Amino acid sequence: MPKNKRYYNIVRPADIATQPRGFVDMQAWFLMQEIPDDPSGLTAYGYVEYTTELTASECWRYQLRPADARERAILYLYLDHDRDLTKVYGFVKRWITFGIEKVEAIAKRDDRDGEVARAVLIIDNPDWRQSA
Fold it and tell me: Which among 31, 67, 108, 111 could disulfide-bond with 6, CB atoms 3.0 to 4.6 Å apart, if both were Cys?
């Protein structure tokens, strides 16, 4: 059975219309608590779980924080640079499907695509460094 995708409520407890429809599990904390297993020490008001990933625009609209480290990094890496998060998130997911050799080749470029490819490589492998 596939694992559900968890998203933390970072602004308010779960209530009517505070998260997209279709969740399969929810836990509301009426006082903020530290997010379990999160080294950053961030707090939340609970979580909702889905069988599929939410879009970046849904995370933005409902102020949900993905529990998955890669999904979270991709979402917040470009938060201040590009408000069309659905476009950015889809763009990054497309690079991931290309395979490591193609992503490494794109990472050598000095443009936006290269920047995204480098971020994907670092998210997947923190020890990765672009060769000269």
Answer: 67
